Amino acid sequence: MKITLRTSVLLSVLTVSGLMSLAAPAQAQRVCVVTRYNQVSCTNRDDYRYNRRPLRVRQPIRVRVGVRQEVRDVYEDVLGRDADRRGLRDWSRTVIRQGNSLDDVREGIANSDEAKNRINDIYRDVLGRDAEPEGLETWTGALEDGESLDDVRREIQESDEARSRNP
């Protein structure tokens, strides 16, 4: 009798755990609900919005906000100023819609005429002359690689040419 009771308890536990393991894949599935306000709510807690065109899911709202902040940071770092509205919109779209990386954004902004003019302004302020093409290329590359405009200014100020000009 004692053996039978233990066996039945053991079988019950195995049966319940077997049923639970069968239910696990169902719990892992993603369930989404579309509301009348063009919002898609999913079980993984991401909220998506879509427009009235054929159901095209956009990036989660928090991703779009994060990308915009990153683009603002690149503007501040590379150009030393806040992003203008159009630039922020256009560069954010290249990341969100076209799949470009923030490194691509940084490279594009660093190679802009405005960035080259900023580098040339630093040359004029610190060295009293325009930047030569090689210098522009060097410092544009530095901006692409993650240095800020302030870093470029500091390095030019610490150059031998700047020290000999301003002893």
Descriptive account of the structure:
By secondary structure, this protein is mainly alpha-helical. The chain has a domain at 113-165. Helices cover 65% and strands 6% of the residues. It is built from 8 helices and 3 strands, in the order αβββααααααα. It has helices spanning 2-28, 61-79, 85-96, 102-110, 113-127, 133-144, 149-157, 160-165, and strands at 32-34, 39-42, 47-49. β1 and β2 form a beta hairpin. It starts with a helix and ends with a helix.
How would you summarize what this structure contains?
This protein has 167 residues and is mainly alpha-helical. It is 65% helix and 6% strand.
Secondary structure layout plus pairing:
Layout: H1 2-28, E1 32-34, E2 39-42, E3 47-49, H2 61-79, H3 85-96, H4 102-110, H5 113-127, H6 133-144, H7 149-157, H8 160-165
Antiparallel strand pairs: 1-2, 2-3
Helix pairs in contact: 2-3, 2-4, 4-6, 5-7
